Amino acid sequence: MATKAQTFIFLSRSAPYGSHRSQLCLDAVLAAAVFEQTVHYIFLDDGVYQLLKEQDASAINRKTLGKTLQSLELYGVNQVYVDGESLNYRGLGTQDLLLPATEINAPGIRLLLRNADHVFNL
Amino acid sequence: MPRPDRGFCLSPAVKFAVVVYSSPASSQAAASAYQFVRTLLNEGHELYRLFFIADGVENANRLTVTPQDETNLPQQWHGLITKYKLDSVACVSSAIRRGILTPEEADRHNLDAHTLLDSTEIAGLGQLIDAAVNADRLVHFG
């Protein structure tokens, strides 16, 4: 592994239980964090549904993704963002979220992307 | 880290890494990835690592059978990986949940068949992060 940490941006844009992409994104985020890279985790589009409070996937025999998301801080993933427009569009607000994500807008995301070494779009 | 120019004329040689998310049967992305890798090697560039993840692990299924008038992508990958001695890796958690097993994994889980092409190894997601860090460019398919 390289000596200097690089900046990874993970764009998570899929709903939590319709596909495996949300879990895949989370696994990649945790791997990058474990290998001591700088991680920015951005939830946008249907990805904002992953952050909803009081989710319980036991009814569909799945693991509840939100529970793992709440442990992000333990892995040193502190830079978690949520796209405000994606929330608005779905009638949601930051009060509906299970973790304190920083609200961000399109220009903010553009700025982060410009300064990133790597982008994962899941 | 010095990074190559972002234009399409890539000179000098670029060290790529490629990650494939889609299976040969469900998406064109897998075939596009194959064409991309073959072309970059033909053009004198380097492939640091090929990483199969999620449904992409099906690209390394040695039991894939296709109709005679269609291409067998796993066999094509196998030929390319062997010819250029590529570092080809399938994500372990993606692979075993889809029944893509090495002989060792098959033994460990008391299963009677192994399905991973022997040109591809099985490893964790750390190998994907390592590829991103050490290649000049990581290119995603699917």
Gist of the model:
The complex is a heterodimer of chains A (122) and B (142). With 122 residues, chain A is of the alpha/beta class.
Spell out the blueprint of helices and strands.
The complex is a heterodimer of chains A (122) and B (142).
Chain A: E1 7-12, H1 21-34, E2 38-43, H2 65-69, E3 79-83, H3 84-89, E4 102-104, H4 106-114, E5 118-121
Parallel strand pairs in A: 1-2, 1-5, 2-3, 3-4
Chain B: E1 15-20, H1 29-42, E2 46-52, H2 73-83, E3 88-91, H3 92-97, H4 103-108, E4 121-123, H5 126-134, E5 137-141
Parallel strand pairs in B: 1-2, 1-5, 2-3, 3-4
Structural notes for this entry:
By secondary structure, chain A is α/β, with parallel strands linked by helices. Chain A has a single domain, classed as 3-Layer(aba) Sandwich (Hypothetical Protein Ychn, Chain: A). Chain A is 28% helix and 20% strand. Chain A contains 4 helices and 5 strands, in the order E-H-E-H-E-H-E-H-E. In chain A, strand 1, helix 1 and strand 2 form a beta-alpha-beta unit. The two termini of chain A are 24 Å apart. Chain B has one domain: 3-Layer(aba) Sandwich (Hypothetical Protein Ychn, Chain: A). Chain B has a 5-stranded parallel β-sheet, sandwiched between helices. The radius of gyration of chain B is 15 Å and the shape is globular. Chain B is built from 5 helices and 5 strands. By secondary structure, chain B is an alpha/beta fold. In chain B, helix 1 packs parallel to helix 2. Chains A and B meet through helix 1 and strand 5 of A and helix 5 of B.
